[in-house]
Structures are given as structure tokens and as C-alpha cells.
Design goal:
By secondary structure, the protein is of the alpha+beta class. The protein has three helices and eight strands. Strands 1, 2, 3, 4, 5, 6, 7 and 8 form an eight-stranded antiparallel sheet that branches. It is globular.
């Protein structure tokens, strides 16, 4: 029979284990970054496909996080599961959630096949999100090249994985 004090101890142990796991995954180092792009539905004639881009971050414990810079001038980090639908010579087509103005939705994304390894200093997904927010400083202006594409490029330059 479990006495109230033992029940409390088991509850604390269980709760603390879950908190520790959450902190561990949030603080796990990123070992590889992939550029991802998806089509935007602009409502305009399809003269040229408009796109949204971000970074897919892979951690040393095998998790994926999508980092997106949105039109509110903020970087958003979302833990995602990806499903590879097709593999091409230099990229793959994946299905995963992405942010929209109203929340999240599943999209087809193109993703670099191998991505770029992060070497040198260790960064967590949260570190890279903070980096993107600092580099963009809340700016979003398509005419002045302050948008999702610029945000992920600036981060890749800072991480020294831009080519």
C-alpha cells in the first residue's frame, strides 16, 4: 500500500523526470541545419512562385525543430516530425507542419538532402532562435529584404554554414 507521503514522492519523481526530459531535449545541441522552402499561395497569377523558407535543425538526440521567421518580426521554433515523400539528387520533398497566420498547418517542403553540419561552438535550437531574433531585431519589410529568406541566410552566415 502506498502511503500519502510515498504517493507524493512518486508523483514528484515522475513530474521531475518529465521536466528533466523536456529540458534535456530543449538543451540538446544542433548537429546539422537544412534549408527548407515551401510554396506560398499568394492569390496572384503564377508568373513566379512565391516561397517561404526556414531552417530545419537536427539535434544530436535525433529530433527535428523548424525555425521560421514570420511577418510579425519574430522567429518561431517548433518541434516537428517529418515524413519524406520523395528523394531527388540534391533535395527531398517532405511533409511537416509550418506556421501560418492562424496557427500551423501541414505543408510540402523542399529540404536540402544533406544539410550542413555545425562545427565548433555548440548551439541548442533555442540558441539559434535567439540568434535569428537578434539578427533581425523585429524587422519585417519585404521591400527592404527583411523577410524569412534574409533571416535564415543571416543565421547561416553567423553559423558559418552559408555557401
Amino acid at each position: 500500500m502506498l502511503y500519502p507521503s510515498r504517493m507524493f514522492a512518486w508523483f514528484c519523481l515522475l513530474f521531475m523526470s518529465e521536466v528533466s526530459f523536456a529540458q534535456l531535449t530543449e538543451n540538446t545541441a544542433v548537429d546539422r541545419a537544412f534549408v527548407v522552402r515551401r510554396a506560398l499561395d499568394s492569390g496572384l497569377p503564377r508568373i513566379r512562385q512565391l516561397a517561404h523558407s526556414g531552417l530545419l535543425l537536427h539535434t544530436t538526440d535525433g529530433q527535428f525543430f523548424l525555425l521560421e521567421y514570420m511577418d510579425d518580426g519574430k522567429a518561431y521554433l517548433t518541434g516537428v516530425e517529418i515524413k519524406t515523400l520523395e528523394t531527388k539528387a540534391d533535395h527531398k520533398i517532405v511533409r511537416m507542419p509550418g506556421r501560418t497566420t492562424g496557427g500551423t498547418s501541414d505543408f510540402l517542403w523542399t529540404c536540402q538532402l544533406n544539410g550542413k553540419p555545425l562545427v565548433g561552438k555548440e548551439y541548442t535550437p533555442k540558441d539559434i532562435q535567439r540568434m535569428m531574433n537578434e539578427l533581425m531585431n523585429g524587422r519585417y519589410d519585404i521591400l527592404n529584404q527583411e523577410h524569412c529568406h534574409a533571416a535564415q541566410e543571416l543565421v547561416r552566415k553567423r553559423l558559418q554554414i552559408f555557401d
